[in-house]
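Need tokens for this chain, all 263 residues.
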Amino acid sequence: MKNIAIIGCGNLGLSIVEGLLDDATSEQYHITATRRNVRPIQHLASRGVTVTSDNAYAVKEADVIIVAVKPYNVDGILQEISEYLDASRHTLVSLATGVSIASIHKQVDEAIAVFRAMPNTATLVKESFTCICHYEASEEQVQTISALFEGIGRTKIIREDLMEAATILGACGIAYALRFIRAMTQGGIQIGFSAEVASLIASQTVKGAAELLLSGDTHPEGEIDKVTTPKGCTIVGLNEMEHAGFSSALIKGIVSSFDKIVD
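Here are the structure tokens for all 263 residues:
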């Protein structure tokens, strides 16, 4: 059994904990979750999670330490736990955007295997996409960290210089997709559905569209062509959206978010 410590169990950390608890292989892990104010995560104790405000205790008991705090808090956390880290035992995973492995190694022993991972809040329903990079980790450590995040979705090992782009596309992308679903719902209400039914139709339709691409290894335009008949309602709607700058606005939004994160 692997002992997992999640340091700083806020929204993202909590979604990871709950996703792991719901995973079919959850019996492989014992989880310790920390937070300065433990009240918002106290309910996890009833599901076998050790809940504490003591980061040092969590690290001493762990094999894998996931640092899930905001980027501006990373240095302080690393300073707090560095003396308890053991390169022969511990694997350190940072979820902080923009905090490089090199900067982490300024705070902890360079012999410690360090990973960066960027999941999204769909961990809660085991549908996250987590991009992962690492520095001089063993194959066993790579497999361990990959398996941990594969329990709550899909993963991809990428270069570290792509981690900020992964944040935009995978983590911020949840918000972009939800805004699209919200707009579809509003349109559905205008053409006659209740809000509840419109939201259900829009959400399931987007889920189905994604699954077509994920399971069929097809291109979006190929699937679009299947439902755009000549002079039909689909192509009229698509063209109207493009005239209003739909694709351009989305691309600009992604690039603007990326510019902000690397600024």
